[in-house]
């Protein structure tokens, strides 16, 4: 299935607001922000001391010292609880006429700094993937893109720090967190069990027509699992929501996640991130995926630079000659470009190339690529968790990826028999030819 790829923040911070629906960030951490509809850009002039200091000596002292600042005019929805409003396009005027009578519209017009405005990327359409590389931007997207009734799956939730931030903006939806570390999952559960204002009783959800149990037992769940090693169980955990019917009986309701967050290490190697995105797309078909990956952003920038050097989107003779010199394989890796508004041109082709040819991409953060052998990780613990096919015991990553092997040798509690990569006995991952 084809996805629309978007980079956040976009290269031009003002070009992306023309889409219409926007989220207005609040200065207060307690305030959940508001939604509205972008109207226009406005340039204002103001007198400042800084402008006066930067003026040249030749300019008259009597001149009014000014600077121009850009502001965004937005029609803001008045309702504080407006997170379920998917379409703001009707916010066009302050008055509306119904049955010949004038009524006050449910929004007001105000101006805001560009930094406080985040675009809402099409809540009515599916298969959008937003890529970022910073934790701060990752959390801004959680605040701006979620609807109150979304079903969220976070892969790589760690100790639940970002999970708390995501859950803040979910009021009627569900949250499920995955991580491979039992210690991190335990810390995440502790964070959520200590929250204030979490109802623990059963409440009837009229929209879903089921009894929903809020609290750590159902509304929020965490699992220690790796979708790579146990994809069937991971799918079951991600889609099964325990609830009660009117008779009081507990029943598992299958609800696929509508929004998926993926942050498996942040700077982790490129191939596992790409495979995780593929797994999420194929199994859940979410309306939105938000990815935090330094390696993927680095590869995208490198491919875009290759495309620019090869002539980019130019139409001149010289550009065409340069493009003709590129063979098909190079061209498939270098035909990606990011527009000013953050939309990635040929983003799906770029992603498919990563998935199909993981060894052909440029070296990325945390991994040394070798087309003949398994990846050599800068640190063995950067490799994903892999379990023995016989005992379900974790396979030792130091034995498989450290050049000198595991220092604990026979005293190591982990599996030294099976390959971490192919799970066959008799060799290490560094020597694996699969």
Kindly describe this structure:
The chain is of the alpha/beta class and 434 residues long. Among the domains are: 99 residues, no CATH class; 65 residues, no CATH class. The chain is built from 11 helices and 22 strands. A 7-stranded parallel sheet has the order 1-9-18-17-10-11-14, sandwiched between helices. Strand 21 and strand 22 form a beta hairpin. The longest helix has 16 residues.
Lay out the secondary structure.
Elements: E1 4-7, E2 21-24, E3 34-47, H1 49-53, E4 66-77, E5 95-98, E6 101-104, E7 107-112, E8 117-119, E9 128-132, H2 135-145, E10 151-155, H3 161-168, E11 174-179, H4 182-193, E12 202-205, E13 210-213, E14 220-224, H5 231-239, E15 240-244, E16 250-254, E17 259-262, H6 270-284, E18 288-292, H7 294-309, H8 317-325, H9 328-334, E19 337-338, E20 344-345, H10 347-356, E21 367-368, E22 376-377, H11 397-401
Parallel strand pairs: 1-9, 9-18, 10-11, 10-17, 11-14, 17-18
Antiparallel strand pairs: 2-3, 2-8, 3-4, 4-7, 5-6, 12-13, 15-16, 19-20, 21-22
Summarize the structure.
The protein is an alpha/beta fold and 434 residues long. Helices cover 25% and strands 25% of the residues. Strand 17, helix 6 and strand 18 (288-292) form a beta-alpha-beta unit.
